[in-house]
Amino acid sequence: MRREGEMFDQLRQIMATKFQLDLAEITPESTLKDLELDSLDIVELGLVMNKELGVSLSDDELLEAQSLNAIVELAQARSARV
Fold first, then answer.
1. For residue 43, what pLDDT is reported?
2. CA 19 to CA 26: how far, in whole Å?
3. What DSSP designation does 4 have?
């Protein structure tokens, strides 16, 4: 199982690459809204997380998460069950 910090770093790299975001803007407290991701970006994020991290999160779960930290915690919990 990945450590939370390691998973956040991977998520951060994915977001910077896929959505052309500045790494400095991507913090654990960032929300998807803060990062200006729209609904199509959120769908893509879910697909990329599944492919790159092996964690399946629905669009609704991503939208309901209040921060990237919450997304990482959910992903950690999901990967621990596998």
1. 96
2. 11
3. H
From the DSSP assignment, how many helices (H) and strands (E) are in the chain? 4, 0
| Full 3-state SS string of 11-23 | HHHHHHHHCCCCH
Determine the 3-state secondary structure of 1 from DSSP: coil
Model pLDDT for residues 29-76, shown as the tens digit of each residue: 999 999 999 999 999 999 999 999 999 999 999 999 989 999 999 999
Quick one: which of 29, 10, 15 has its CA closest to 68?
A: 29
Q: Which residues 6+ apart lie within 8 Å of 34 measured at CB?
A: 25
User: What CA dihedral angle connects 47, 73, 27 and 57, to 10 degrees?
Assistant: 10
